[in-house]
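Before the break, one more example. Copy the sequence into your notebook; we will annotate it together after we see the structure.
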Amino acid sequence: MLKQQDMPVATEHISSHPFPVLVVEDSAVIQRQLEIVLGREGFDIDTTGDGNHALELMNRRFYPIVITDWMMPGMDGPTLCRAIRKKQTPGYVFIILLTSRDSREDIVQGLKSGADDYVNKPFDVSELIARINAGERILELEHSLKRANERIRKLSITDPLTKCYNRSYLAERMPQALKTAARYGQCLSIMLFDVDHFKIHNDTLGHLAGDELLEEFARFVKTLIRIDVDWLVRYGGDEFLLVMLNTPVSGAADLAKRLCTGISHKSFTVLEKKIRITASFGVTGIDMSNGAFRVTGDALIGSADRYLYEAKKAGRNTVKIGSYSGEQVAAYLRAGPS
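Here is what the structure looks like once it is written out:
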């Protein structure tokens, strides 16, 4: 347990800056000066006088800005810089070295250790704040780039019409899901389903109506599934695939039956008209608890496709269920639907 003197000292103010700051300074006088000066400017500050303790604090809270003294007992500033750079952090850490060393060699050494900037002691308050503000601009740019990359990434794995995942996402995630299930001895189930007679609806009402129907259909399905756990994929046309992690076939079958009933009882609004539809479902899954089963994503989807075909053959608006069988699926794929 940390002693009272080991706890970070935070100034009492409402922060007007987006990033918390960690000050690492062994001089109590300078530490207090920084608390007052930066606190007055609206920074959210924690302080410590020890490099090792600074690393402990960073394990508890992420500090995107670190201001550290160069000369400290135990771990000095450059060593702390190197340690921070080796850490796995949620984002970039902008580090400013406070130093009375001002030779070219010392400056180069500090920057090589991982510092982004330095301020000479005794420091000028306006200069220090200006350099912190420059660090904030760099961090804001990093955040903007991350958000932009995340948007691009999301677009690359999302079907633009239904906002479900696309087949690229499926190809990327399915092998990972199977490995996880095998490693932890879990179940994994999938559900393949589509709108019954979708081509008739599409041809009768028009392609715009068909698109709107698929959007409404996907929205309704999302209301009944674990949207933050399982993943719904637009597999192609009006066909959708739901991958259910750590779920036995019995649980997947119960969900498929609820979906099948819910869809048949719902009125879908398409071009301001109410229409009724049904859907057919093929459900399969695998239990990895014995640790001996090996299966590919394509084989598992082939199994679900087999049961979906059986649901169509049985008159549609129904659910067909079965555990994965490699031999059955291989024979089915060789022969093709009859």
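The longest helix spans residues 125-156. The chain has eleven helices and 13 strands. Try to locate both features in your own notes.
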